[in-house]
Amino acid sequence: MKNPEILDQENRGSEGRNMPVGNIDGLRAQLHKLRHGMERLIDSLAEGAIEKDQFTARIDRTKTRIAEIETKIGAQATDEGRRAHVRSLMNRIAELSSHLQSLLHAPGWATKREIIRALVQRIEIGPKDVVIVLRLPTEASARSMEPIMVTLSRV
To answer: Which of 9, 46, 75, 129 gives a 20 to 30 Å CA spacing to 40?
Structure first.
């Protein structure tokens, strides 16, 4: 809480390591070209320009390539959503940190308790681990809260 910049630096470092190789627009362009090529193959077969064996082999390769690209597009969209969620959470932590900055220099017992009560939704103690469920609103409104779970080993 005292240094939210550390989280931001770590997040930037992990984004750099997990950055997708191709961009989503380039993949969509490839997908469009493959679908157009598939239509041309069907037209070529209908006009008798290629044999059915050639058509089958080419259409199978095209369908496989389309499925691969659609998978990559889905993965990149999921990654981008995850990165946006992390950025939103980090912004909320930074806001909370700036708000509590004056209280964090020399907090008393009551202040520490109130901070913990504001941040922790519940603590689940199991035989092998302890799960701390944090409550950090990801949106501007406090109604839309999505908890964050932190699991600690009891060993």
So the answer is: 75
